[in-house]
Design brief:
Layout: H1 2-8, H2 15-61, H3 65-70
């Protein structure tokens, strides 16, 4: 039984070092994922902002019907 365990966990490396490497790897992939999600959010935000600016300019060029109703005699 101990021979099988020694094949799973090599005796040349301390267990703490193995877990430390695993934790660093996990943190690295988490950071990469977080940066990718932030990059996608920023791209979406800039695209949406540009579309909103275009719609605003289009609305400014249209006839404002609501201004007629707001006028008081």
């Amino acid at each position: 039984m101990s021979k099988e365990i020694s094949q799973i966990v090599p005796s040349s490396q301390p267990v703490e070092e193995i877990f430390a490497v695993q934790q660093v790897t996990k943190n690295f992939y988490y950071e990469v994922q977080a940066r990718d999600e932030f990059k996608r959010y920023c791209e979406w935000y800039y695209i949406t902002a540009q579309q909103n600016r275009q719609e605003l300019e289009k609305m400014r060029g249209e006839l404002n019907i609501f201004a007629w109703f707001r006028r008081r005699s």
